[in-house]
Structure formats: structure tokens, C-alpha cells
Fold:
Amino acid sequence: MAASVPGRLRIRQGAVDPAQLRHWQAELATWPEVQSTRLNPEARSLIVQYHVAQCEQAEMESRVLTLCNGPQDMQAHASRPSEAVTTQAPRPAKRAHRAAWRRRANRGAKIAAMVALPVSIALVYAGNKRLHAATGWLFVAALSVHLAIHRRNVFH
Structure:
């Protein structure tokens, strides 16, 4: 599962062949709560739009993951490699922990920057240069953390 919001989810499994995605698309189209499906073979993804009133987001995610991953014994006994659903290997715990830490740090940095900048500007008009400078440096530090976390995307 690549992304999910209420009413829409994207399935992107890098190792899955397009035939498997078409099979999932046909299966999902038979579900009564599914409004539409759209296949993107180049990105190897499938977008599913569904009625939230008929199926909650967590339930739909669970059902789709069950469809995509299938029972483990069916995967083991598949006669052809294309019948087995191959998914990306789970990330090691250390990488997952690092990614969660980065998300939390980035969220804190964005909140600090969004609070520090208007406070710093307000302090200029209030005439308090010392606190203006302190909140300005807080903004710069928060922006630096944000840019350091996203350095690969910023400098490409």
C-alpha cells in the first residue's frame, strides 16, 4: 500500500508484474463499495476509489492488503512465479525507526518555524530587538533541521 486517504487508496508494489495488478483491478471492481479503479502500469500502481459510507478506511485497507498479500500458504504453493504475489521486503526495524524519528523531528521543526516567524515579526513591531533576534534564530534553526531532513529532495 503506497498511500491511503478516506475514499481513495493507491496500491504500489514494486515487484508485482502488471498482470497481477490487472487481476487485482478485476477483483476489486466486483466489490460493491468500490466506485472505480485505475491502473497505471508504468508506475506499477493501482488506484482504488471507494464509498467511505459503506466501508471505513481501516477496513478497506485491511481487505485490500489481504487481497494483495493473499494467504501465505497460497503464495508458497503457487505453480507459476506470476501467480505468487511478491511484495517489497519489509524495511528493517532500524530503518523504520529512523524514518519515524525523522518524521517526528521534521514535524517539530515545521511547527517551531511556523510559530517562530510570526512571533519574530510581531516582536519587531513591538520594539523588542532581543526577543526578535532570539525567535529569528529559532526560525533559522527549525528551517535548517527541515532542510537537512529533506536535503535529497531540495538539492536535486
Observations:
- The chain has two domains: 3-76, 93-154.
- The first strand starts at residue 3 and ends at 5.
